[in-house]
């Protein structure tokens, strides 16, 4: 039978269906003069939030102090932006609003699921322009249709897309400047990370470890988009670390270790500090005997060469899905350059960030049954899925005692503030043959619905807990610390809280109408401080709070300020 060819015509750009056509509305050129030096000295312009964590150090600390412990009770909504939930792959059970809003001199740049980017007036919430990337319907996504944010520099906005592209947009119009592919969607690779601009590089990491891919970091020239280097996070045979993988077969080639959370950077060491993800398959360790470097590790990467200078593995031979992708917070103590990392496995690691030397290890969650790590770094596995078809229960579950959502550090109080998830899970090993782009978990997993609790816990650099604000549900969103001695933290049930950074006392609360799974930021325009938080429950909720899979899925950005 002959089928006559039918011309389907031109696809409609969804970004043109909102009345906001890229180029039709123009943002002021506030990003034109944002360069490496300004980002390096972000703390000197606290009115802006120039990069993902606010600064290269990853502290998620705002030096703004207009909103204080005394007046925060007067905080009110200033404006709301409704993003909507349209999109082919943005079903109610998959998408989540996970971004960290970037603000430059009164203009906010915000990323959403499904390839959306918006430029907004940071005072009124008025939309200036929007961009919509055409993401294929059949992209393999492990853990939700999400995007954690954008980077800005030299007049451009940088983002990744679910189908593993990295883009540069004109910051004034939203028009695409360049578009590069850095992952193979046919193999199960994707991208969710917020890019990081360092020097003249745009640095991004890959996602897709649950599909048996080999993780990597990539750097692109900021101006041209030309690829500069790739750093694989699983060594191939013959490279340092390859002895931690089976000598025969291709376990290393599908070993995981994806870098799907933004790294931090120290200009003095010239090192990028990045956490790597789980090995693949997640739970079936028998097919990948050994420690499986550089999975579940903190790696220090020379930002010019793209080479690993040192590493520290938090969970050798992981069979619990304990990615070490959590942020690496840079701080100093007694003149020593240190790094703090709260790992999914339930332990707080402090390392010397120049050498990778271990300084301290302490637990930060009550229930840890998978194993134990001694203060001198000895890891002992106790409970894990090692027999086919036999269920094994352990704490924390695969989402971790803290998921990707970020802790914060205040140099005023010298305390770390961590969102804790005290949730267990049962894994039953189910061996599967590897097939490209098919989930490669190696087990069936059921996360506990009962006895799931959480907290915002404050720790000093020694790992001593100073206070704990308890919650009936796990805390599944990033926290924000400010110079007003406040800690802002959102709950899965929609409440947005302000806590006293020194005592943990709850000082203010607002119900946002949907659960929090994002990263709030703070900024100032015309002398008025704002706190912005995206709300939109979803993503991999079955992994960290399955009891709320049916909760309302919002998609709004709420911005708060003191009354004028």
Automatic annotation (TrEMBL):
UniProt keyword tRNA processing present: no
Domain of life of the organism encoding this protein: Bacteria
Gene3D superfamilies: Quinoprotein alcohol dehydrogenase-like superfamily
Domain Pyrrolo-quinoline quinone repeat: 49-359, 475-531
SMART domains: PQQ
Residues spanning the membrane: none
Keywords assigned by UniProt, alphabetized: Metal-binding, Oxidoreductase, PQQ
Cofactor: pyrroloquinoline quinone
Family: Belongs to the bacterial PQQ dehydrogenase family.
Protein name: PQQ-dependent methanol/ethanol family dehydrogenase
Organism, scientific name: Pseudonocardia xishanensis
Lineage of producing organism: Bacteria, Bacillati, Actinomycetota, Actinomycetes, Pseudonocardiales
